[in-house]
Amino acid sequence: MVDRLTAPAVLDSAAFDIRLKPYEKITLDNGIPVYLIPSDNQDTLMLELVFNAGNWYETKDLVATATNYLIKNGSSRHTALQINERVEFYGAFLDRSSHHEHASYVLHCLSRHFADLLPVVQEVITDPVFLLEELDIYRQNMKQQLSVNLRKCEFIANRRIDSLLFGPAHPYGRSSSMEAYDALQRDHLQEHYRAHYTYDNCTIFAAGLLPEGFPKLLNESLGKETWNGKSRFAKKDQPIDPAPEKKAYRITNDPQGVQGAVRIARLFPGRLHPDFPKMMVLNTIFGGYFGSRLMSNIREDKGYTYGIHSQLYHFRQQGALAILTEAGREVCEATVREIYREMELMTVEPVGDEELHLVRNYLIGSVLGDLDGSFQLIQRWRSLLLNGLDENYFNQYIHTVRTITAEELLEVARRYFRQEEFYELIVF
Amino acid sequence: MIHFRKFTLANGLRVIVHEDHTTPLAVMNVLYDVGSRDEDPGKTGFAHLFEHLMFGGSVHIPDYDEPLQMAGGENNAYTTNDLTNYYIQLPAENLETAFWLESDRMLSLAFSEKKLDVQRKVVCEEFREHYINKPYGDAWKRMRELAYKVHPYRWMTIGQQLSHIENARLEDVREFFFRHYTPSNAILVIGGNIRFEQIERLTEKWFGSIPSGNRYLRSLPAEPDQEGPRREEVHGRVPLDALYKCFHIFPRLDQRYYTTDLITDLLSGGSSSRLYQILVKEKKFFSHIECYHLGNLDAGLLTIEGKLVRGIRMEEAEQAVDDQVERLCADLISERELQKVKNKAESVIAFEDMALLSRTNSLAFYELLGDAELMNQEIGHYNMVTAGEIREESCRIFNINNSSTLYYYAENGESPGNPI
């Protein structure tokens, strides 16, 4: 009979050789850096063009996302429909995104269609016309979407906590509004585009099965000209402006709602601070994975919520630490009390050997999964390179996971898990 | 082309092995042939609640998650109308931990009153979060009840109502387990950096001694052909009018399933698709519109749902949708448009098959359909579809007698005709 009472032996995470596989780099004639993770195990590829063009760079509200969205909606030679048809005929996806710092366009396609698709990407990025008609449709539909989102307690809670942490005028704390959509004008978009979507403000990432002649194709298409000239950007960091009062905020958005959105958050240093990797480990134990203290207590023991998480934000100028959950309306206050109770526990009792061992193994195992495959690997490099970091940062994190002690964790918890330094918010 | 080998244990457990030596990981996927369609109409939501209880400790192992995390693994599960699927991803060296955990909970659960009590609450919060406390959250409940009168697809996987979950008892849990969670009702897939011989040995060691149990024989009432249009109107606490229309389609194993799948892509498979281009961009009747189906095994639904631009009347919007689906029935689509949606189908499969987790998942799903090899025949099925079949199937699906329509009106004062 097989022994079902004893767990099979496991290879400890200490035995895993975790290394970040290096990228290849080429530079186009005009100086655009291209980072590559080639792979022969697939027939697909991704190509991403990233610009420092997120909302941190905008001079008017919502201009960065609107610009990013509408770049694809018409060039001087083709309408939005013609562009979309050309991309979608090949079963490809050309997606856009805009965040606080970076805005990007990413192509996913079967590698054999790349040569047909690259000219479309080139046209989209270098020749958008921002038709007024397209802007009006965008404005109308975004306002409609906003009207639906404003009914959701978690949407209101996310906006409010960002505003409390960073200040309502700071790019990290600003939120969308009907008025700001109404104020969007075509020339704001053109201006933002011309200032930031330029060859010298572009970084390219590519991964997967790169077709023969890939560097040459890319160079011919995006590397020959100094398209859109030099980026124009002269803006200093705006001061972070957190709300002065760290009281308990309660907002009623829907008097008939059956749940509340709980957010408890504080500012936290950015990635370069020595406490950051330590907090990555502490946060995992506290609320960063399924077996965390918060999940074990508030979901698995009390059943107050479907899920509760704590997470670290690492924006370029400022980081933050936030606990997020949606809980039953009647148990929201009890949930808040339990969160503080778990927080305090971390400042008085050192984490036990068994739990720390488990979290080390879990984190190393999840890094192994995160680095599996060329697309995953390029994402990891992207996150490092765009923040001016390299493999040393990654290695330092792995080293911290492997060696941090219960005493160090206690020290970090005592430094940051202070109830009076958190903003506490419930939106019903 | 996905390579695999399969074998069956004496107790009836079907096992599929997919070697991939380019990854340091291994995945174990256990699919149980039970979904919310197998529930008692008075105890809906049970298959999903049960999925939660599968993490509440098994007969020899008090805690499922801890040993897995210690082995550097992650796991999750999901329940649909048709099936329940559990998966683990972990470093390949630690695969035996997955065998130990999954075989013990297939053998028997711990059946704890406390765990049941907590998971009832957790699932009720899940219900509230996704279906009550969200605008339009109850639309699908209404659509299912409108479209199905007999077949158990008439309730949602989360359950028809909260009380069904609140009333679940431990004896129901026990009974459900021994009826459905047996080797003969399960499919085990192991993929990643592993060897076939190693899997044969480990499977026999850990799963071989589990009693086979009775094979659950499904006999569900077929939904009779719909004989006339069905309509419902509701006024909800939502900011925009929304239109929902759904139509009965053929089961997953019917070749016409592929025709239908391509039809949904023609209508809303991207920014160049018909509904988006004509109704959002040109006519500006909708701010958002989509067409989809859920890939159900029994005869499912094709759904079109959209949010109306303020000021547009519901009847006007519905007519515009009808015009578009009728065009598919009236005119043959061009070869180029047909090629576009076939290319998309090929590309979606290629991207899905990149991830080991997704490949092992699909192998289990296709084995449930009858044979894992079907996975490698999907593109062929799509390529066989002709423009004539698209037209023929569109005429049948979009027949008014096959339709159910929900007008979901915004609360008074906000719409219609209230410009923003």
Distance between the termini of chain B: 52 Å
Largest sheet report of chain B: 6 strands, mixed
Number of helices of chain A: 15
Large-scale geometry of chain A:
globular
Structure notes:
The complex is a heterodimer of chains A (428) and B (420). Chain A has 428 residues and is an alpha+beta fold. Chain A contains 15 helices and eleven strands. Chain A has a six-stranded mixed β-sheet with strand order 1-2-6-3-5-4, sandwiched between helices. In chain A, helix 1 crosses helix 7 (186-196), helix 9 (275-288) packs across helix 15 (406-416) and helix 11 (332-348) packs across helix 15. The radius of gyration of chain A is 24 Å and the shape is globular. Chain B is an alpha+beta fold and 420 residues long. Chain B is 41% helix and 18% strand. Chain B is built from 15 helices and eleven strands. Chain B has helices at residues 46-53, 65-70, 95-107, 113-132, 139-147, 162-166, 170-180, 196-207, 256-268, 274-282, 314-330, 335-352, 356-369, 378-384, 387-397; strands at 5-8, 14-19, 25-32, 74-79, 84-91, 186-192, 230-235, 242-248, 286-293, 301-308, 403-409. In chain B, the strands form two sheets. Chain B has a six-stranded mixed β-sheet, sandwiched between helices. Chain B is globular and about 65 Å long. The model of chain B is unreliable at 414-420 (pLDDT under 50). Classes of the chains: A alpha+beta (428), B alpha+beta (420). At the A-B interface, helix 2, strand 5, helix 4, strand 10 and helix 12 of A face helix 2, strand 5, helix 3, helix 4 and helix 10 of B.
